[in-house]
Amino acid sequence: MNKADEISAQLRALSSPETAIILQRFFKTGPGQYGEGDIFLGIKVPPLRALAKRHREADLASITTLLASKYHEERMLALLLLMQFYQHANEEGKQSAFDLYLSNTQHINNWDLVDVSAPHIVGRHLEQKPHAVLLQLAASQSLWERRIAIISTFHFIRQNDFADTLRIAEMLLDDDHDLIHKAMGWMLREIGKREQNIEEEFLKKHYQRLPRTALRYAIERFEPSLREQYLKRTYFEA
Fold first, then answer.
1. Is residue 225 a part of any domain in this protein?
2. How many structural domains does the chain have?
3. Do residue 79 and residue 159 come from a single domain?
4. Is the pTM of this model over 0.85?
5. Does 104 share its domain with 6?
6. How far is the C-alpha of 43 from the C-alpha of 17, rounded, in Å?
7. Is 90 a residue whose pLDDT tops 70?
């Protein structure tokens, strides 16, 4: 039974016009910005997580309806519900949740929506399956699909499997969007937390070409002198 209307009514009771103004500025919703046209109700994430827990039984039909909302927080709530559904579903249900996610990437259209969900649905689902879909996403014209590709690999990084992250980062070296640079640098840094030598092997090969924002994120935890060499683009030069 589709309970989207009931859930939506409870969600909108939490809205704050003042918070909405702050969030619309923070998430760059102005003309020409990455979140252009996105509309906020003015609800922060903790209340959304609490509401999601109250509706653990939400089915995929309800989630699909919420995910198509024009309101950012309603789409975030849908993703939180989808993550819960995925966690408790059988294999058939998990596949349906994964398919729903990839069929609705046009609604997963800001960095927070991607980051909260991609590792837990896409990454987790592909752990024991072929990863070719990630390469397809990485080659997409959609900014958000490219971010889904690289952020999904966070799940693999947590399993100390870095191959897909490095492969996709290599594909995205010439990407022109700052949100991809940040995501790439973040994932490289996460590799470095676990195996700095593997991160450095990638950087030694690509640091001259790596976008500066990505490089800054990637080397954030390095010793200051090493970080400075990378930033000056002089590392390993004769």
1. yes
2. 2
3. no
4. yes
5. yes
6. 9
7. yes
